[in-house]
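Listing S7. Sequence submitted for prediction.
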Amino acid sequence: MLALSASILSADFLRLQEEITRMEQGGCDVLHIDVTDGHFVPNLTMGLCVAEAACRATKMRKDAHLMISRPQDFIKKFADAGADLILFHHEATSHPFEMIKYIRESGKMAGVALDPATPVRSIAHYLHAVDTVLLVTVCVGFGGQSYIDEMDAKVEELVSLRREKGLHFEIQVDGGLTPENARAKHELGVDTLVAGSMLFQSPDVRQLVRQLKGEC
């Protein structure tokens, strides 16, 4: 079944509690916490204090997407902040198995994220070790962009590898989703849609989520 993950990068931070509650009551399944450091990507979003507050604000699953250099230094901190799944970028480490080990030792689910230019084959040797693969489908670290159509081929390749290897990791796509293109990604084999503007700018989140999940 399709899941919806609300990316709080697009939320009104003056009303963060209210915004998160609106997403939860609207039927979203996951809260996506976008963390950037101004180094790995040229943007700053939020740190531990905001992430911890966001985690306390909901019963939804919390995914911490670490778009940062040296993610190994922050795994325990975001685990303690309340994240349920911690996503590191393949491009940010030369030791993915160590990253996964650190996350597991923190008692959390482990995920890997890929920039648009990074090929799926670069993570094929450790797909068996992760719970989630997130494909970033826009320029990493910024909201409000258009979906890069070439990313559909990466989704298809990842779905094929999952089937061939008999694996069960979750596939997420993050960025550029609209009510017009979102459902098609699920049909490609995506399990979870990470959306910011599409959800937070919707006047009726519940209706939108129901439409995307095929409930109406």
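Caption to Listing S7: primary sequence and predicted structure tokens for the chain studied. The longest strand covers residues 30-36. The beta strands are 3-7, 30-36, 61-67, 85-89, 109-114, 132-136, 170-174, 192-195.
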